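ok new one. same drill as before - C-alpha cells go in, u give me an amino acid for every spot. 222 of them this time. try not to just spam alanines like last time pls lmao
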C-alpha cells in the first residue's frame, strides 16, 4: 500500500472520527471474552482509534502500520512501522493474546505472509480477528479504492485461516450496525434493503449504507 494513504484518502476531513470504533471494540471485547490485561496488537492500526478504545477497555495494546500517523489516539501506544507484506512483525513468537486487523488484508498483494506472521506472534490459545470488506456485497464499488488488491468472501477468509494453521475457525458476513448486534432480528430489514435496493450503495443514510456494504469477520485460534 502507498505510504500516504491515511493523509490523502483517509484523512480526518473526509473520514471524521465517530463513536463506531468504541462500539465495535466493546462488541468484540465481549464476544471473544477478552479480559483486562490481555495483550492485543492491531495490524494496520492507521489513525489508532481502535487501538485507543481497546486500551480504554483495559487491554495492553500495540500497533503495526506501514504509514506513520500523528493522531492523538496513538500517544503513549507502542506503534511500529513496517511493510507487513514483506517484513517480519517486530515482536517475538507467541507475544499476543489477541490479533486484531480491520480493513488491512484486502490491501495486500501477499496476504499469505501476513497470515503466517499473525499465527507466529499469537500465543497458543490466542485468537486472531480479521475483518475485510465482503467482495460479494461491495463488488460494484470495491475498486473505488484503488489500493484494494485481494478481495475476500466469507468462504475465502475461512479457508485462508484454516490453511495457515488456525483452528476453531469461523467466518461470517458482518453488519457494521451496532443496533443489529443488540437486536439481530432487525437483520431482516437490512436483508430487504440489500437485495431490493441495490442503488443505495454509498447512501448518506448509515442504516441503508451499512445494510449494503457488509464486512467479512473471520476469526481463528492458534
Amino acid at each position: 500500500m502507498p505510504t500516504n494513504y491515511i493523509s490523502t484518502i483517509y484523512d480526518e476531513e473526509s473520514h471524521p472520527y465517530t463513536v463506531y470504533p468504541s462500539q465495535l471494540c466493546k462488541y468484540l471485547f465481549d464476544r471473544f471474552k477478552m479480559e483486562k490485561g490481555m495483550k492485543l496488537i492491531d495490524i494496520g492500526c492507521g489513525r489508532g482509534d481502535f487501538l485507543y478504545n481497546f486500551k480504554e477497555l483495559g487491554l495492553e495494546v500495540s500497533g503495526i502500520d506501514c504509514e506513520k500517523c500523528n493522531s492523538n489516539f496513538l500517544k503513549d501506544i507502542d506503534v511500529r512501522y513496517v511493510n507487513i507484506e514483506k517484513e517480519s512483525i517486530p515482536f517475538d513468537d507467541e507475544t499476543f493474546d489477541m490479533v486484531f486487523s480491520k480493513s488491512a488484508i484486502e490491501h495486500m498483494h501477499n496476504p499469505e505472509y501476513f497470515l503466517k506472521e499473525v499465527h507466529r506472534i499469537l500465543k497458543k490459545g490466542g485468537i486472531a480477528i480479521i475483518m475485510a470488506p465482503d467482495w460479494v456485497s461491495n463488488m460494484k464499488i470495491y475498486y473505488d479504492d484503488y489500493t484494494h488488491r485481494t478481495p475476500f468472501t466469507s468462504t475465502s477468509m475461512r479457508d485462508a485461516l484454516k490453511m495457515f494453521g488456525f483452528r476453531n475457525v469461523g467466518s461470517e458476513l458482518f453488519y457494521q450496525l451496532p443496533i443489529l448486534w443488540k437486536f439481530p432480528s432487525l437483520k431482516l430489514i437490512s436483508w430487504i434493503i440489500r437485495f431490493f435496493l441495490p442503488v443505495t450503495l454509498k447512501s448518506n443514510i448509515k442504516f441503508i449504507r451499512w445494510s449494503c456494504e457488509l464486512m467479512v469477520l473471520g476469526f481463528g485460534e492458534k
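The chain has nine helices and seven strands. and btw The mean pLDDT is 90.
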